[in-house]
Amino acid sequence: MKKGTIILLIIVGILIIGIFGGISTYNNLIQLNESVDAQWAQVENQLKRRTDLIPNLVNTVKGFAEQEREVLLGVTEARAGVTNARTPSEYAEADAQLTAALKQLNVVVESYPNLKSNQNFLDLQTQLEGTENRIAVARRDYNESVRTFNSRAKRFPTVIFANLLGMGQREYFEVSEADQETPNVEF
């Protein structure tokens, strides 16, 4: 074979390998991006479950603690904030407000033992606790998907494809500073 033909075959071979590598990288980014979107949908699903439970919880508590209307109103308003949030940072901020309102509600429960004796309240409280656990798992899974995507999208040569395709870094769901503080319970 001629030297020029060999060089041409090498160049064509490199191009074919590059094309297949690019296709593989593209498909991998799409799969990881879809995984992040699916995990975010799970976070939204669990937050929706919680916001659906809260009106029932509030109505049950209202019957026993009219004097604590301000706390219950705060929970309701915080729930509305979660319902209206659209981005991870908006959800995180609204979730922090809802968590603070729920902490105040739990202080009310501790202060008024007759609330704890109401079976409906206990059932709803158990469901709410389970929902909080589901939200924590959904957040963890979402952040793990974001970590996987971001670490893959930062690697060379994937970073080139990610930038060309507009698939930059995804946003983590971060806990606010207020959520990191230990609540102060006074009796």
From TrEMBL:
It is a single-pass membrane protein. It is found in: Membrane. It comes from the Bacteria. GO terms for cellular component: membrane. Gene3D superfamilies: LemA-like domain. InterPro entries: LemA-like_dom_sf (IPR023353), MamQ_LemA (IPR007156). The chain crosses the membrane at residues 7-26. Keywords: Membrane, Transmembrane, Transmembrane helix. Its main location: membrane. Belongs to the LemA family. This is LemA family protein. It comes from Vallitalea pronyensis.
